Amino acid sequence: MSGHVIAPPAVVAAPIHGSDETFPVRRVYCIGRNYAAHAIEMGHDPDREPPFFFQKNPDNLDFTGEFPYPEKTSDVHHEIELVVALGKGGRNIPLDRAMDCVWGYGVGLDMTRRDLQGEAKKMGRPWEVGKAFERSAPMGRLKPASQIADPTKGKVILKVNGEVKQEGDLNQLIWKIPEMISYLSDYFELAPGDVIMTGTPSGVGPVVKGDVMEAHVEGVDDVTVKVV
């Protein structure tokens, strides 16, 4: 049997609360403008229009507690999000079966080079240059779904240097978790290892080197990330 011509890339795996095992990540789906107040602050109508998704790469995830300020930008924004990790997948998953796919939950940050994203939007180009750069998704440990009392509600708070910048509640999601899973499965074949970043509340804003971000999703986790 022939081997690879180069060394295979390392498997990206999220740590798990209370376990030495890890969760290998296959794909990272991100939903845009999934809180009404955030849609408004970004200049869009908050009415419930069909959802849209973009992707980050698995190796954009980072679990070190540090976020290196990226190059080619002067306007990097924080976006706190509930992360949903899938243990099952499929195509055309019905709503009443969607939650069966969920393995667990975590807290992540969708860090965004807002200036580059804005330029891409104006030119009708994809967002990857603003969204899918190295270490652009700081994340904490995952918790199994069985340890989460109610993933449909709970405070979502992001502090920068101790000051609350973002605040919302999971019950404010425009598209709920089962709806996101079902909708995605109509367009992609979902699989174990896929994660979904479920959107961010209003209050997104810039960070600079030295800032400390504290991300909290009630009942899920607390994550602290320093901008370096």
TrEMBL record:
The keyword tRNA-binding does not apply. It comes from the Bacteria. InterPro entries: Fumarylacetoacetase-like_C, Fumarylacetoacetase_C_sf. Keywords: Hydrolase, Metal-binding, Pyruvate. Residues 28-227 form the Fumarylacetoacetase-like C-terminal domain. Pfam families: FAA_hydrolase. The keyword ATP-binding does not apply. This is Fumarylpyruvate hydrolase. It comes from Rubrimonas cliftonensis.
